[in-house]
Amino acid sequence: MSDRVTIDQMASAIMEGLTEYADLATDELKKSVKKAGKTVKDEISKTAPKDTGKYQKSWAVKTVNETSNSLDVVVHSRNRYQIAHLLEHGHAKRGGGRVAARPHIAPAEEKGIEELEKEVEKALGG
User: Fold this and answer.
1) DSSP for the chain?
2) Span 21-36, average pLDDT
3) pTM for this model (two decimals)
């Protein structure tokens, strides 16, 4: 009977340790997601085409979904979203010809992904 109590206690202690690790890992991963979102926003703002500066300043990070073990963020232009696609991919001019593409969103996204991978590895001890 005493062996059974010891095994139960050990199993309970292991589960408690695993739960604590999962909670710590989740918190670190959420921090990593927030940091990567900020990196993307900052990179877009830094490399976006500048006319009046309003487009560059319009970028923000928004949390769209958060649960106890996940976090979804989106980087978006608050009030200049209509021109984001046109600037990123180029567009036809009214009188003919084309305006050249000014890629600034895709490179920022790539940088954010790299940042997230690096932060996740660091957070999980890899």
Assistant:
1) -HHHHHHHHHHHHHHHHHHHHHHHHHHHHHHHHHHHHHHHHHHHHHHS--SSSHHHHTEEEEEEEEETTEEEEEEEESS-HHHHHHHHH-EE-TTSSEEPP---HHHHHHHHHHHHHHHHHHHTT-
2) 86
3) 0.80
